[in-house]
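Forwarding the complex inputs:
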Amino acid sequence: MDYVVEMLNIRKEFPGVVANDDITLCLRRGEIHALLGENGAGKSTLMGMLFGMYEPDRGIIKVRGKETIISNPNVANRLGIGMVHQHFKLVSNFTVTENIILGNESRKGLVIDTETASKRIRSISEQYGLNVDPHAKIEDISVGMQQRVEILKMLYRDAEVLILDEPTAVLTPQEIEELGKVMKNLIDEGKSIILITHKLKEIKAVADRCTVIRRGKTIGTVEVSTTSEADMAEMMVGRQVTFKVSKQAAKPADSVLRIDSLTVKNSKKVLGLKDFNLDVRAGEIVGIAGVEGNGQTELVEAITGLRKAESGSILYDGQNIVNWPIRTRIEKGIGHIPEDRQKRGLVLEYSIEENMILEVYQKRPFSKHGLLNKAAIRAYAKRIIESFDVRSGQGATSVTRSLSGGNQQKAIIGREIEQDPMLLIAVQPTRGLDVGSIEYIHKRLIEQRDKGKAVLLVSLELDEIMNISDRIAVVNNGELIGIVQASETSEHELGLMMAGLRGGEVAQ
Amino acid sequence: MRNTIVSLLAVLFGLLAGALLMAVTGHNPFEGYRYLFEGGMRDISRFGDTLATATPLIFTGLSVAFAFRTGLFNIGAAGQMLFGGFCATAVGLTLDLSKPLMLVCTVLAGFLGGALWAFIPGLLKAKFNVHEVVSTIMMNWIAYWTIYYMVPAYFKGEYLETESRQLPDFASLKSPFLSEAFGGSYINLGIFLAVLAVIVIAFIINKTTLGYELKAVGFNRHAAEYAGIGVNRGIIVSMLIAGGLAGLGGVAEFTGNASNIQIGKLPTQGFDGIAVALLANNAPLGVLFAAVFFGLLYSGRGFMNAMTDVPPEIADSIIAIIIYFAATSILIERLVRKLLRIRADKREQSAEKGRES
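Prediction (whole assembly, two chains):
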C-alpha cells in the first residue's frame, strides 16, 4: 500500500498527562482520512507532532516511506506537510497574496515580487476551484474564504499532505458544503488530507477512512462507507450515544425576560439589533436561530449588560434592567455562557479554581472582609469539576490555558449552572465539542428548564436549536423574522426564515 | 520555582558576561568581582549602604511589578517618585511637628503625591483609552519641570539655586541609632518601610479580592468585564497603588538617603525599577532580592573603581546584560527544560539497563 504518512506507535507525555499513548495512523496517498476523537483525546497533540510543533517521546514518523524527525514546522513544510489551524493565522489588513507569501517572499531586486506571486495564486486557485481573489483584503472576505486562503497558502508551498483542524467549526452550512467540494478537488489532484473533526455527519460526507482515538489510544481505523455514524460515535465515546435528546413537553410559567422594541448598535456603530421583541418564560427554552452576525451578539450583550441599549426596554422579572450594572444582573440571576470562551469566559492564566469564582469571589464563603478563602474556593471548584467532568492535569490548580477546549467549556457551563440562574443565556454552548460532551450539555440545559428556569439558547447549529428549544425565534439582519414552535417547524421553514423570508406560521 | 531558577541563571550569565568584558578589556575579572562585592558587603557599614541604595529600588520595583501584574506598564515610576519625594520634602520643610508625627505626614504625602501622578494616566486610560506608556512618560517630564519651578520658587536652598533647603532632622528618615548600628552607614528607616511594602503588596496580590480583581483585569479585561468586575476602576486603583509605591521610593530617596531635593534630575531609580521588576518576574519577594542585588552592584562599583582600574561602567554593563537575560527568559527556560530532559532520559536508560540485567 502506498502510504504518504505513517505515524507508528506514537507516545507523547506532558506534565501530568499522557496525551498520546501508542497511537498509529497511516495516511494513503489521495485519501481523506478523518481523525475522530473527543476533546482531549489527543488529536491536536498527534497532529502537532506531525507538523513539528512537538517531538514524540516514542514511536516513528515515516513520510513517503522514509523515517524522519520533524523537529519544527519548517521541516514539516519542506516535507510537504501543511496545516490549516482552527484559528486562522492571517494578517487581517494584508491582501490574500501578501498573506500567502508572508515568510516566503520572492524578490525582484529590492522589492517584493507580488505580481508573479498573485499570478501563481490565481492559477492554483483555478486549478482547485477555490475561487479566491488574490488582491482582496482578508478583513473584507468571509470566514469561509479566509479558510480557503489558508488552504491556498499550503498549496502555494507545495504541500502534499494537508491537515485540516476542525475546519467546519466556523462555517455556515453552505460554506461547509463548499469546503467538501474543495476537499474532493484536492484529492482528485493527488493531495492527501487528514481531517480532524468530531462531526460524524461530515466524516460520512467526505472521508474515505477514519481513525478513532480515545483517551490517547488508537481504538481503530475503519472504512467510512461501511461503518455507521452510531458505530463511530460508540468507538469515540466508548458507550452508546443517543443523538435525539429526550425531553418532556415544556410547562412554561410566567415571563422571566420580556424584551420590548430593543435597538442596539453593533461594534461598527451601526444598528445591529432593530426594534426587537422577545418573551422568554420560566420553564422553557427559547432558541435563537440565524446566520452568524445577524444580531445575536448584540441581543445577548444587551441582556447581559456588556453592550448599551440604544432604545427599548428589557424587563427581567418585571424590572427594566437596561441601566443595571453587569454585576447586579449576575447577582439577580442572569447566567451567561459566552460565545467566545477564551475571550470572555475565562482568564486563561488563572487556575481552574480561580476561574470558578470569577463572578462570586466577593461573596461569602469565598471571601470575607476582602480576603480570599482558599479552602472554600477549592472545595467549590472541586465540586464543579466533579459534577461537570472537567478533565485536567492537576485538578483544581491546573492553569486554565492547559485544558482542552471542551474541558474549558464544561468548566464555564459548570460555573454558570452552579450559580442556579433564573435566566440562563447559552451562546453556542457546544461549539467545537465532541458528541459525548454535547449530549451531556444538552441534558443539563433541559434539566435547567425542567427546574423551572428560563433558558435562552443562541446557536448557529440548526440541529441543536431544533432539538433543544421549545420555541424558536429566527433573526435576520438584526430583526425578528418570526417565532415558531420547535415541534411544528422544519429545517426548510427555518432556513427560509433565516434568509429573511417571513413565511412560516407565527406562533405565540 | 522555575522562575527563580531562570532569574538566578540570568544573574549568573550576566556576571559571566561581565567577567568576559573585564577579561577582554585587559582586567582581572576575579579581582574586579572581589572588589565589587567587597565594596558592597565588606563590612557592616558597606552592607548598610547597599541596603540604603536598594531601598528606593525596592519601591520602584514594586511599583512597576504591581502595575505589570494588573496588565499596566508603568514606565513613569521616575516621575511619580520625584513628585512623591517633592511632596514629602515640602511637608517636611513646612510643618513643625514631633518626629514620629512628622514622619507619618511625610510618608503619607509621598504616597499621595506619587499616587496623584499615576492617577492621571490611570484616568486617561480608563476614560479615553490613552496608553499608559505614553502618558506616564509625559508625566515624568511634567514632574521634572514642576520640581524645576517649585523648588527654587518656594524651597530654595541657602547657597544653591538648584536644590531645596536641608530637611531638619525631625523630618528625615535618618536615624542616628540605625546609622550607628551599621557603623556609620547612611542606612535609614526607609528600609523598614520597604520591607513592609513588600509584605503588604504580596498580601494584596495573593490573598485579597482586590488582588484577584486587579489580576483578572490585567490578564483578560474582557473576561473581567463579563464577570462584572469594574475594569476602569481596576485600572485606576492599580495605578494609584503603583504610583503611591513609587512615591514612597521618593520619600526614601529624598528624605532618607539624601536630605534635600535637587532640580534638573529625573531619578534613575524609576527606570531601574523596571529592571528590578523584570528580574523579579514581578513577584514582590523577588523584587526585594533583585533590588538588594542591584543595590550591591551600584554601591560596590565605586570601591571596585578605587581599588582596581576596572571602569565602574562595567557594573552598569553587568546590570544591562542581566536585564537582557531576564527579558529573554524564554531562552533560558528552554535550556533548563532541555537539561532536565537529558537527565530524565539518562535515568530512564539506566533504569532500563537495570531491568535487562
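Chain A has 17 helices and 24 strands.
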